[in-house]
Amino acid sequence: MTSVWLRYLNAADIDSLGVTGADIVDAVEDVLHDHGEDRVVFEPRTHLVPDNGGKGHFNVLRGHLSSQQVSGVKVVGDFVGNFERGLPSEMALILLLDPDTGMPRAIVDGTMITDARTGAMTAVGAKYLARKDSRVLGHIGARGTAWWNVVLLDSLFDFAEIRVTSKRPESREAFGEQLSEHLGKPVRVLDNAADTLDGADIMVEASRLVEPEPLVRKEFLRPGSFLVPYGTISALELDLLDVVDKVVVDNWRESQSGNPEFGALRPQLNAGILTEERVHAEIGDVVAGKRPGRENDDERVLFWHRGLSTTDLSVANMILRRAEAADVGTMLPYR
């Protein structure tokens, strides 16, 4: 019988490969273009909610990339209270599979990938949907994805002002200091959502609420603004869409899938406010040029992304190719 080995890539292995933010953005933008051209197989996410007293749940994401000839599955936990244990709230593993034989190719630490591909999705959305002259960023949240949101957005827009806030003072202060040191510019740390978002050109809501709370209100959205909400629990005012000119999603089916309590616009979906007719486009169609993105400087645009398995696979596969070329990682005997 033929021996089968697979490559295991841990966090240190990935760090050693020198992957840049631009590399991750390119991998995400490429696969979004493939979405627009129907070159992916994209399955609905599923949730596994253990009997753990509400501590957290798992998301299971599956997909296949035709242009890269790779299939895969990601399992990621979402455990808000993990900071009390010194752990990330989201930890993940990605299994990459050969679609011709079904053989496993690699097991990849997906924790950084989850954070980075989320920030890259925000950045690609802003590239097509935000004003080119956007100068002020307002960001709610200081979890892992928040770092990539701010860093990758700033790489595109070079903001004149960055405002951040989060629920815990210690997390937002540390977040602001780390960002300021990394970006080489001041970062304003504020203690409330209103001062952080009101009048910002680009607004990102990545909060970690345990129950819905209207942190993002419609009066914050000035003409020309761009809003990206993706907290697991809604932080939006229910009638916020009244002032939004365009709603773009990563995938309309995905927007409706999974637990009906999870998702930034779930209340709007459940109330019949957000419908398929209300959605302007999926982001893949915009990237592929099949639907227009921002068409004028006065539009208020909202981009809701819940997370696409295909972006995880694209980034993980890019990392695997580099690891194979550099012979990085641990080879594990499969059979």
Automatic annotation (TrEMBL):
Keywords: Lyase. Signal peptide: none annotated. Transmembrane segments: none annotated. InterPro entries: NAD(P)-bd_dom_sf (IPR036291), ODC_Mu_crystall (IPR003462), ODC_N (IPR023401). It holds the Pfam family OCD_Mu_crystall. It comes from the Bacteria. It comes from Amycolatopsis magusensis. One of its GO terms (molecular function) is ornithine cyclodeaminase activity. Its EC number is 4.3.1.12. This is Ornithine cyclodeaminase.
